[in-house]
Write the structure tokens for this entry.
Amino acid sequence: MGDKLNGWQRWKILVSLKAPIHEAALRLQSFPWDSETELATLTRMDGQRVLTQLVEGAITADACSKWATPLKDETIWGWNPAASSS
């Protein structure tokens, strides 16, 4: 499952909800995290997307937690609050 994906691709899949959260989280668990650079950028739109799905019932609170848990290590992702799109 996605073993040819690089770190950036794995993060982008999780952050943008391009795959079921549990699958994206599994992809991240199998990746060695020793990068000196940002692997992905988290935008306001990304946060809004997951919270909207939670409120609408499209994802569970557990799935939302699984989405957010990898984001705790802020040294491997960039935060761009200004980046958003309609």
The beta strands are 40-43, 77-80. Helices lie at 7-15, 21-29, 44-56, 61-68.
